[in-house]
Amino acid sequence: AYQILEELENPSDLIQLGIRSSGKDKQFWESKLGIKQYWAQEIKDSGPESIAKGIKKYLSDKKVDEVYISFDIDAIDEQYASATGTPEPEGLSPEVPLIILSSILDKFKATGADLVEVAPWIHRSSINASPSGQDTTLLTSASISNFLIERLDSQ
C-alpha cells in the first residue's frame, strides 16, 4: 500500500485493516504519513462492528462519498490463506473483514475493488497453516471475490 500513497490526494485517505507486522509501528504510519490503520488484534479486541462504526465516522468526517477496496489476502489468518507472499498467524477469519466491509458499503458506494496477494503456487507452511493451503486459500479468495462482486453489482 505504501506505493499508492503518491497517487492519493492525501495519505489519510488510506485505511488499512488486519495488519499484524510491519517494518514500522502503527504510530509511524499514522502520525508520520497519516495512514489510518486497524491492526488485527485491535479488530479482534474491539469487534468488527465497532471498527466499522469508527471507519464510517472517519470517512463521513472527511466527507468521502466513494471508496475503493483493495483486499490483501494477507490480512486473513494463515489457516485460511497460507498460499500468499507473507502468511502469518493471528490474522483475521475471512468473515471479519466482510462484516466490516458490508457495513461500510451500506453507507458508501464502492468505485471498484481488487483482491491481491493470492499465490497458490507458493504455498508456505508453518505450524498453524493447513496442509492443503492452496485449496483453502483459493476457496477463501473465491468467497471474498464473490462478496465484492455481489456488493459492487448491487450498487
Overview of the molecule:
The protein has 155 residues and is an alpha/beta fold. The protein is 40% helix and 15% strand. The chain has five helices and four strands. The strands form two sheets. A two-stranded parallel sheet has the order 1-2. Strands 3-4 form a two-stranded parallel ribbon. α3 runs parallel beside α4. The protein is globular, with a radius of gyration of 15 Å. The mean pLDDT is 89.
Features:
155 residues, alpha/beta, 5 helices, 4 strands
Uncertain parts: none
Main sheet: strands, sense, barrel = 2 strands, parallel
SSE order, one letter for each helix or strand: EHEHHEHEH
End-to-end span in angstroms? 26 Å
Rg for CA atoms: 15 Å
Report the count of strand segments.
4
Mean pLDDT value: 89
* Percent range for β-strand residues: 15-25%
Structural class: alpha/beta
**Total number of helices:** 5
- Overall, the morphology is globular
Strand order of the largest sheet: 1-2
User: Which bin fits the share of residues in helices?
Assistant: 40-55%
